[in-house]
DNA sequence: TATATTTCCACAAACGTTTGTGTTGGTGAT
DNA sequence: ATCACCAACACAAACGTTTGTGGAAATATA
């Protein structure tokens, strides 16, 4: 089974201490010759370092933990991609844990697993942490950072898109295309994210002095079904000429239900979605979106997590931008 | 920072040994009264167990590792879901690692990270392990099992769908609908999976004494783009009346390119995909698929991984079945 | 040659648990 | 009163590393 540093020491005729230093590449502690002997012995024995022992004594680990919510939202992949890239560069390992969606217990479990392992840092992707777990996270004394979610009142440091701006930008885009009656669909209005986007939408409508109706905003949970529900709520004969979907998946729901209603997108109805993942490109018509920089979010996440100074850090917005595709066109 | 078992011992006025036994719930070693005192002290100090220390002495961990390839295939989610369910039941933790796609280095790195941590078991999801890593995996003496991939010559134990059967079943389904000229698109013909499916396709065609043409099978990598490429290869005026796509995403590529060619699915061309993820339901027309039981794969994976006897275990196929949706219809 | 410096290495403590083995005091049987 | 026994706990070793310190040999300095 596992060969230890002692076995290597014996085989190479040196002390365990020397083996340790050779294997972790601390120069100025051994000669070239012994280094070679040690390496040869290690290879011969198929040595694998025992991370538990290392972490026990060094009290730090080279792995950072990513906790994601198990939604079917697919942008997490992009964020993780960015994280991995940075981890690679910095020779760090990343482990990923699923916490359920709004499941306090699962969140706690995931949190405990990584805290017990005393990881280098924790990145929480799209996790709406249950308040009962705030303390657990805080008292662990491990750097952490939320990604792709916003908090009020400096509750936690985070990196996200500016959700207000997202709502605002989507709306003004549509307004400037001549739309007047614009729906806002399928966002979770209990979430801060949903509220910010809605606020952005309202601000834009206000600024252009466009009246709105409560019927135009539909509650939901960013899911596909919420998109079809929203469209059903608007109805076959809707007065809306455009609608903003809270996610790509929700937009697809709207598209499909619109088609079922025989309302043509984009001719009868313009749709712009929020996120801009690959889904936008594989459906027809392709969906015009407010595209978020998820990969960048992952990269910046790693950078600020590792950069220290998280205490002074509060929040950072990554860029967004309209990606024009086919699902939205000018009106009137 | 971290309170240790010793701190608790001191506060509770007992020995560390007793604290350990209380906290890990070994009865018959302490009185109710001291147990209460220990628990109270632990809570008061915000104690978090040091997993490194535990694993160091016990030489086992309660976490199983899942290594996934970072494809944009979305079935991994379902498999992980099944895994998580079982882990929950058995009070195990699961950590997920990304290994790149056919990237020997990344595979090695992921493998090493989990081996060094001496996890309880390793589940490799859709990982086509580079032969250079075979030894690493084998010599670790950690139970492992591949999921959603097949191997020749008993190279590794795995649980997967029967890929030959998938190809066969997709083909006979189409044949019995009256199709004669059937394409086989976008599978990676260098992969064993691709070859098995192709063999199944050929067997079916043979059994029905249907001639085939090399032009009808297109190489690829299960990706969206491979679907559109395949369709381009078949051409606007294709003689094919049906095509089997190697994945849902590839099927969507075919759908879109077909639409671009103005060939109507399913009227002009029937499409059946392999996988049957949610993607099949959110595009129009909905895609008829050979649906795999990914969740079951995850569940069975955990069960056999934990069941021991992996040495006697060779392979296990999980169920498949046609899910009829809208993209395929009778011909002639 | 004598001393100082450097190079290379070994010794041993420490990290926070678990767990086998002692030890104590108390209870019941003889 | 003696013994055996049991409950309830403490002691200490062990797990595989890292790292501060000390020391011998080799080299440089005077």
UniProtKB/TrEMBL annotation, chains A, B:
SMART domains: HTH_LACI. CDD domains: HTH_LacI. Gene3D superfamilies: 3.40.50.2300, lambda repressor-like DNA-binding domains. Keywords: DNA-binding, Transcription, Transcription regulation. The keyword Ribosomal protein does not apply. It comes from the Bacteria. Residues 3-58 form the HTH lacI-type domain. InterPro entries: HTH_LacI (IPR000843), LacI/GalR-like_sensor (IPR046335), Lambda_DNA-bd_dom_sf (IPR010982), Peripla_BP_I (IPR028082). The keyword Translocase does not apply. This is LacI family transcriptional regulator. It comes from Lentilactobacillus diolivorans.
